[in-house]
Amino acid sequence: MDKRKIAIALVVVFASAAAAWAFGLFGGKDPVVAEMQQLRDQMFQNRDLPEADRRAQWENFRQRMDGLTDAQRAALRQDGRNQWQQVAQQRMDEFFQLPPDQQRQRLDEMINRMEQRRTQRGQNPAANRGRGGNRGGNLTDAQRDQRRKERLDRTDAKTRAQFTEFGRRMNERRAERGLPPMQGRPGGGPWRG
Predict the structure, then answer these.
(1) Residue 33: in which H helix or E strand, if any?
(2) pTM here?
(3) What Cα–Cα distance (Å) separates residue 42 from each residue in 39, 45, 157?
(4) CB proximity list for 45: less than 8 A, separation 6 or greater
(5) 3-state secondary structure of 180
(6) Which residues have a Cβ under 8 Å from the Cβ of 177 and sit 6 or more positions away?
(7) If you placed Cys at 159, which of 15, 98, 123, 155 could pair as Cys (CB 3.0 to 4.6 Å)?
(8) Which letter does DSSP use for residue 132 in this model?
(9) Mean pLDDT over residues 98-119, rounded?
(10) 118-138 residue pLDDT tens
(11) d(CA 23, CA 6)
């Protein structure tokens, strides 16, 4: 083989390897997962959109999730968990740095949004069918307990203490307003707006 054919073969091999790497075939980020992460980030940044628009974005995201492989879903969930934890910790820190009157105002804003969503769901129960209702879906009590334990294992003592105190304050404020206490995460937590 002459040098020219060897050079062409090497160029083809390197170009193929570069293309494979770009498409995530050598342990890089899967382009489909990267695109889904970008969509999720956009949804997260657009929390102030009207409920109908947010719901449409979420439905689009869910439909696209159905087309992912199990490995792609797992990668997306892990990335989302990491992102959620960072944002939740940031919002907790911000909440606890506020003076008490602003904390109370923040709780009232969150409670108002939660009650507004609850009212909207009550007015249109058909829109909520088939959506899993809650993130626990059809899990058994043992499976729910296992998920809780795994979530706790991924957080540090400071974060757990903040979430516990936040939940206590949220339920205390709800009681002051004549509302029932929240079960589990209070209204999606402070990261929801």
Answers:
(1) helix 31-45
(2) 0.58
(3) 5, 5, 31
(4) none
(5) coil
(6) 108, 111
(7) 155
(8) -
(9) 93
(10) 888 888 766 555 444 444 456
(11) 26
Token pair of 111 as six digits: 């409670």
The Cα–Cα gap between 24 and 33 comes to 10
| Gap between the Cα atoms of 133 and 177, Å rounded | 26
**pLDDT band at 158, cuts 50/70/90?**
confident
pLDDT tens column, 71-104: 888 888 888 777 778 888 899 999 999 999 999 9
| pLDDT value, residue 17 | 54
CA 188, distance to chain mean position in Å, is 10
Q: Which two tokens stand for residue 148?
A: 């809780």
The separation between CA 81 and the C-alpha centre of its own chain, rounded to angstroms, equals 6
Q: How many CB atoms lie within 10 A of CB 180?
A: 8
Q: List Cβ neighbours of 185 (8 Å cut-off, separation of 6 or more).
A: 167
